């Protein structure tokens, strides 16, 4: 099956491809990257009709290539992705975090939401059930370090920020680019840690009727 991956950050490509390689190696992947999406959102401070139309154009292009499903890896654009899902209701269109949110809500009531991209902490909390007590936390400077190519500093800042979430039932890592730090976060906090890429791949497999690996 052909899966289109749409990214607003270049750092998301490697973690999601690694999850597919491990959990669904037979899937055919197509990557679409527009890193101006995240830059423009950070500049504008919120989503707009113009931004939604940009997402709709990406969705139309993905559908035109014969994709069986679309997975967005950019966590701060929920309403834009929902518009794409409505426009292409005949195929699975997944927001990056929806599978992880389902897992988190089933496993805990007080959930630490750790992010490296500030707009995510505005857009993502409404996607959680109202029964969940969400504790948002920004790993300041981590994304800038990753942009400089300094993955070690990124991971260190993510781990340091996660220590403020040790009182939560579990910790959810909001960005795909944070997945490589999951084991260190779990060790530093003693809490279960959920990442977005693995959850998304497994949900897509279920939605498309593919037998579990």
Biggest sheet descriptor:
4 strands, parallel
Q: How many helices in DSSP terms?
A: 10
State mean pLDDT (0 to 100 scale). Answer: 94
* Helix/strand order, N-terminal first: EHEHHEHEHEHEHHEHEH
Q: How much β-strand is present in the residues? A: 15-25%
Low-confidence stretches: none
SSE-based structural type: alpha/beta
Strands of the biggest beta sheet: in what spatial order?
A: 2-1-3-4
The dominant shape is globular
Got a strand count? 8
Helix content: 40-55%
How far is it from the N-terminal to the C-terminal residue, by CA?
15 Å
The Rg value, from CA coordinates, equals 16 Å
Descriptive notes:
The protein is of the alpha/beta class and 213 residues long. It is built from ten helices and eight strands. The strands form two sheets. A four-stranded parallel sheet has the order 2-1-3-4, with helices on one face. Strands 6-5-7-8 form a four-stranded parallel sheet, sandwiched between helices. β7, α9 (182-189) and β8 (193-194) form a beta-alpha-beta unit. α3 (49-64) packs across α4. The longest helix is centred in the first third of the chain and has 16 residues, at 49-64. It is globular.
List the helices and strands and how they pair.
Blueprint: E1 2-7, H1 13-23, E2 28-33, H2 36-44, H3 49-64, E3 69-72, H4 78-87, E4 93-94, H5 98-107, E5 110-115, H6 120-123, E6 133-138, H7 142-147, H8 151-162, E7 170-173, H9 182-189, E8 193-194, H10 196-207
Parallel strand pairs: 1-2, 1-3, 3-4, 5-6, 5-7, 7-8
């Amino acid at each position: 099956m052909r899966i289109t991956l749409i990214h607003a950050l270049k750092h998301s490509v490697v973690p999601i491809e690694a999850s597919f390689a491990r959990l669904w190696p037979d899937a055919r992947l197509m990557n679409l990257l527009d890193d101006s999406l995240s830059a423009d959102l950070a500049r504008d401070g919120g989503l707009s009709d113009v931004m939604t139309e940009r997402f709709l154009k990406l969705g139309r292009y993905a559908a035109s290539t014969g994709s069986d499903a679309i997975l967005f890896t950019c966590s701060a654009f929920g309403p834009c992705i929902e518009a794409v899902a409505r426009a292409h209701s005949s195929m699975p269109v997944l927001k990056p975090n929806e599978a992880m949110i389902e897992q988190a809500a089933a496993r805990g009531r007080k959930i630490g939401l750790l992010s490296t991209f500030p707009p995510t902490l505005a857009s993502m909390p409404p996607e959680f059930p109202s029964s969940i007590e969400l504790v948002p936390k920004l790993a300041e400077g981590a994304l800038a370090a990753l942009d400089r190519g300094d993955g070690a500093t990124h991971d260190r800042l993510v781990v340091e920020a996660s220590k403020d979430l040790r009182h939560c039932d579990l910790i959810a890592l909001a960005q795909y680019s944070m997945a490589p730090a999951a084991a260190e976060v779990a060790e530093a906090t003693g809490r279960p840690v959920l990442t977005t890429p693995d959850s998304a791949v497994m949900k897509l497999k279920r939605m498309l009727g593919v037998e579990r690996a």
